[in-house]
Amino acid sequence: MSFDKVIVALDFSSATEALKIVDDLEGLVDFFKVGYELFLAEGFSFLNILKKKNKKIFLDLKLHDIPTTVYKATKLILNYQVEMFTIHTLGGVEMMKASLKALREIDEVPSKIIGVTVLTSLNEEKLYETLNTSFELNSLVLHLATRAYQSGLHGVVASANEAKKIKELCGKDFLVITPAIRAEKIQDDQKRVSKASDAFQSGADYIVLGRAITLSKNPRQSLLDILNEAAYRKQ
Ligand code: C5P
After folding, report:
1. Does 184 score more than 90 pLDDT?
2. 162 in contact with ligand 1, CB cutoff 6 A
């Protein structure tokens, strides 16, 4: 199972902690996710540090605001030539198109826009608690993914449960990025979890590994264990 399908989430509040994992994984992983914990702590300068180390960046700020604000924020993000960045599909079709408009105003398109569908920390019960309306979760994710595709986005974040159907509906080139990867069932905030093997078998283009790696005493070994499981299950 290939390492280039792995993105490691640098969910830390300092560059020092984040760079320790980056260095620990040297030679194995070169794609890292910067979410808003690290981004709020270190700002755009951390992106430059990663770029100097020749790492690919997934900037996961999940932009969710009025179209004009998202357009302007996209313009700023594009200055940093990250590989991918996220916006929230629930911000609406107009918002997604505003982000794309900013992208299309640049001659050489440097980044892919990825839509967050329904957070993997939500299940149907949590959605109902929040919205007071029942949704069939798979249908909602598929609906949002289809809207993202129709709006021109490059892909979506979704769980392994939804990846296969998204590929069927939106085509194989529409990227699916799957977080909430767990080797075994543990109690935490993620609800729609999957094993790496299930994510890849469902058609995910990338898996995002967070705490499974970043909380490990031996991140390299944990990464190898996760990928071995995926390779073994593939046979
Ligand atoms: O530690 P864990 O493996 O749960 O980390 C998952 C990472 O993926 C976190 O950085 C989280 O912000 C991110 N993410 C997610 N669900 C989404 C989008 C991003 O868990 N829908």
Report:
1. no
2. no
